[in-house]
Amino acid sequence: EVMPTLDMALFDWTDYEDLKPEA
Amino acid sequence: ADPCHEEGGAPRACVPGLVNAALGREVLASSTCGQPPTQACDSSDPRRAHPAALLTLAGGTASPVCWRSDLLTQAPLNVSLTVPLGKTFELVFVSLRFCSTPPTSVALLKSQDHGRSWVPLGFFSSCCGLDYGRLPAPANGPAGPGPEALCFPELQTQPDGGSLLAFSVQDSSPPGLDLDSSPVLQDWVTATDIRIVLTRPAMLGDTSDSEAMVPYSYSAAELQVGGRCKCNGHASRCLLDTQGHLICDCRHGTEGPDCGRCKPFYCDRPWQRATAREAHACLACSCNGHARRCRFNMELYRLSGRRSGGVCLNCRHNTAGRHCHYCREGFYRDPGRAPNDRRACRACDCHPVGAAGKTCNQTTGQCPCKDGVTGLTCNRCAPGFQQSRSPVAPCVKTP
What we know:
The complex is a heterodimer of chains A (23) and B (399). By secondary structure, chain A is mostly loops. Chain A has no helices and no strands.
């Protein structure tokens, strides 16, 4: 089974702003 | 044929040919006749001038043929002839032909630092003790283990009755001493300049009584300094550089006027003089084509069994290590490319959320994945997991 790649748009960065990778 | 390499390309010791190192060189005489002019010598008239340049004239027949000193009427009676050779040579012999009655005492000196300091090579005198404070040379060479400046009792007489100063380095070295294996002999034959000091004229008796002296002048020709351009076994010839300086045409990864050091990238082992047995070529550092500079590390050299001590500097193309033989952090070896390929190291490219770090396995390229995450770059959820909204735990078990 090939899983889809992680969708960055789905992540909620509210509590992890400092971890958010630069675009 | 390349004298410095075997047919198969292996390095071998090579030396420039034997030459007269004084030929065409300027000679500095402490006294030369003709100033002021006399009946016999006038420095401003080529037909009656006896300049020191005649001693080392290259080619042609000059007339007059001999250098002549000024008339020596009072002490000091020393006259020196100095020949800067322009670079280091390994001496074989020195000779000087006298055009008139030769002096009874002559000292031969050499410099290894272009005339800053001088050491004696030998003396010629019928009064070794009186003139130089030395015993006459033993018939079978020096008694000590190394070469030494001996005092030879007389000059050579030529078939035509003339006299010749003939000095051979062999005469002042103990028999059996080998240039390849004796650093002392190597030092002994090395010279940048030669000086001949004509110490005492033959025709003068008591030199302390200047009133009793008969006017006398030294006269000589054909000053020869037989030797080989010193290249430490790493060149077969010497050339003039762009500034007119004589330099070795260095091979074996060496450089410098005498091939006395390794070229910048050729420092995998220490510099050594070549011998007949072993060329001791400087070896290039092994950097897989990813570095242009390296340095020598004696500790590593010893640890390697005296095989390799080079450490590559500033490895490029994302490589690292002593030989630029592995990839730097954040990169991994592409198995499809050769180690010297510019693109041999690929970026790990670990996923910013799915991976637990940015450093992947250097061989496989596998990034460290968070729980439930899979893939070489940790960019997918593993089977049985699904993407969450939390960047801390991007994949959670499927309910």
